[in-house]
Amino acid sequence: MALVAGATRGAGRQIAVQLGAAGATVYCTGRTTRTQQSEYQRPETIEDTAELVTAAGGTGIAIQADHLDPEQVRGVVERIDAEQRRLDVLVNDIWGGEGSFAWDKPLWEDDLERGLRLLRRQVETHVITSHAALPLLVRKPGGLVVEMTDGTAEYNAQRYRVSFFYDLAKASVLRMAFALAHELEPHGATAVALTPGWMRSEVMLEHYGVTEDTWHDVTEPHFVMSESPVYVGRAVAALAADPDVARWNGRSLSSGGLAQEYGFTDADGSRPDWWRYDAEVMTPGRPADPTGYR
Known about the structure:
CATH architecture: 3-Layer(aba) Sandwich
Organism: Dactylosporangium sucinum
Number of strands: 7
Number of helices: 10
Helix content: 40-55%
Largest sheet: 7 strands, parallel
Shape: globular
Radius of gyration: 18 Å
Protein name: Short-chain dehydrogenase
CATH class: Alpha Beta
Number of domains: 1
């Protein structure tokens, strides 16, 4: 029994689908439905995600919710409680930050309201969702919380990430998982932070003017190491199925690292390890070469 908060598209959608492929009932939340769009004005909907979950072998249930609204989030959890009486997996994948940050612009030159909106969408939403959902999750031991972010703790501690607001948002989610791990451990539950590598989300594919079938046409050389959202979805499914998942409590994890541990692959059968590649090839300025990294 899982709640994927922020399941409309990207990582959240495939996390929900891969949990469904493992037989789970997955509640898929987000702001965009077939009758109402968020400010993104994108075509993906939570109903589409729920149908994909069901087609994969699970049971997908779509609920519209803005995770900045505590009352709406409480309503989601109350429905799960009424219908399932339990919550085994909570995935906090709410983002909502597209267009809310500037690249390489210092804090004092950035738009304050836009930056604060990014923090509200990336940090406050996760806090609100955990506050509402964790009482149900800890009702039975063995629960799992996955905080989705961008970058491992080691990587983000050593590098400036895009802008002050983006950097702070992603670091906050990493610390959130660490703090939750300490609070959940006495209740027999586990919290981890998880990052994909360079992920081919719908937004990223659109940015490069390609599809999942034609992504090899992108001229950016290091894009050869990109991964589909299926990869991180399978990472969450592997964690959820691990009876010894508590060994990861408080850890910062990546899709590529977990693939080495659990043996799953991306949709194309490859096993990209983006963060090792970045450290050993991209950051040192070496020519793009995926050999030995996927």
